[in-house]
Amino acid sequence: MIVPLVLLSAALAVSAAPYQEELIASVKENAADLLLWEPGMNFHPDATPEDFTHLIGNYSIEPRLAAHKKKSNCEAVCYGHEDNKNVPETFDARKKWPQCESIGKVQDQGDCKADYVSMMSSNFEYIT
Q1: Which residue positions does the secretion signal occupy (predicted)?
Q2: Which of 48, 69, 70, 96 yields a CA-CA distance of 20 to 30 A from 76?
Q3: Are the C-beta atoms of residues 51 and 23 closer than 8 Å to each other?
């Protein structure tokens, strides 16, 4: 009973690659005149979900931040200033610059790893 189940599982696991190849061939055959790009396999058929986590924003910054803090001298000198006595305990940009409408607006960036682009581009209207 276990052997047929294992064989069935193996057959199902490798069946995705032929389906993708058929789909690519169909797209090339039916839409070749319309395409501005070349259809093909993007990833190796044996790729695992873990191979894609860096593409969808599922990575942790903690190890890199810890490594950066180890290399830098953040506690003693922060951003090149030896004396940080003038830094306030709290700061609210909405109160400091109430005329700036973009500060209080929170945009939905979803799971996009390019969230910095939407933040920066929304601020350009106030620069010009």
Answers
A1: 1-16
A2: 96
A3: no
CATH placement of domain 93-127 = 1.20.5
Coil, strand or helix at 104: coil
CB atoms within 10 A of CB 12: 9
pLDDT tens, residue by residue, 30-65: 887 888 888 888 777 788 877 776 666 655 666 666
Helices then strands, each counted (H, E), the chain: 5, 0
pLDDT value for 40: 85
* Residues 116 and 124: beta-carbon distance below 8 Å: no
- Which residues are CB-neighbours of 16 under 8 A, at least 6 positions away? 45
Angstrom distance (rounded) from CA 93 to CA 105: 12
